Amino acid sequence: MLVIKDFYKQSIITDEQIKAAMAKVPMAHLKGLEYIVYDPSRFFQRSYVNVKPINYKVIGQYNQIPKKFICIHEILHKHEFYHVLYHEIGHHVFNYILTSQQRVSWVNDIYPCSTHFVSQYASKNAQEDFCESYSTFYTRPTDLAKDSKKSAFIRRCMTHSK
Q1: How far apart are CA 78 and CA 28, in angstroms?
Q2: In this structure, are 6 and 63 located in the same domain?
Q3: Domain co-membership, 65 together with 13
Q4: Looking at residue 113, what is its pLDDT?
Q5: In Å, what is the CA distance from 89 to each residue of 26, 83, 108, 146?
Q6: Is the dihedral of CA 71, 75, 153, 120 positive or negative?
Q7: Range of the domain at 149
Q8: Which domain of life is it from (predicted)?
């Protein structure tokens, strides 16, 4: 069961808005995801992640060892929250929900032939491109539509998950 935790510690996004955002995501894409946590102090992250330096520049993070969870560290405005939430869910989808064949297709066929990146960060690597595209599917679908291959791939992911 997915636990959404500690968002009462901020005043920008309500529990109802979070529930509405999550309702847009196919249930299959949330399979295995254990927590989505508002964690400005990074306490939750330090409690569950292998010991490593914490990157204080990121405002959201997907972690998979030992638990699969998303931490949102900072919320400046609603649009940014939604983008970060869906981006981090995209990491979970890429790593655990897509089939290996789908991942290979994105990495070898979609990403290298891309004609459009939805953000500069998306051009960093194939996984970040997928996550930015996944988030953009929810937050700015007309931007994603500028690359028909990516748009079609993400749409297929919404209906053909494991």
Answers
A1: 25
A2: yes
A3: yes
A4: 92
A5: 11, 10, 22, 22
A6: negative
A7: 98-161
A8: Bacteria
Residues 35 and 71 in one domain: yes
43 and 6 co-located in one domain: yes
Residue 100, token pair as written in the block = 């290996």
Widest distance between CA atoms in the chain: 43
Provide the total of helices (H) and of strands (E) in the chain, helices listed first: 8, 4
The DSSP bridge pattern shows strands 3-5 and 35-38 to be parallel
Q: How many domains does the chain have?
A: 2
Span 3-58, pLDDT tens digits? 999 999 999 999 899 999 999 999 999 999 999 999 998 887 777 655 566 777 88
Q: What is the pLDDT of residues 88-127, one digit of tens each?
A: 999 999 999 999 999 999 999 999 999 899 999 999 999 9
Query: Considering 17, 42, 75, which residue would you say is the last residue of a domain?
Result: 75
Residue 86 lies in a domain: no
Q: Is residue 118 part of a domain?
A: yes
Query: Cα–chain-centroid distance for residue 84?
Result: 6
pTM beyond 0.90: the answer is yes
- Nearest-angstrom CA–CA distance, 68 and 97: 12
Q: Contact, 84 vs 59, CB < 8 A?
A: yes
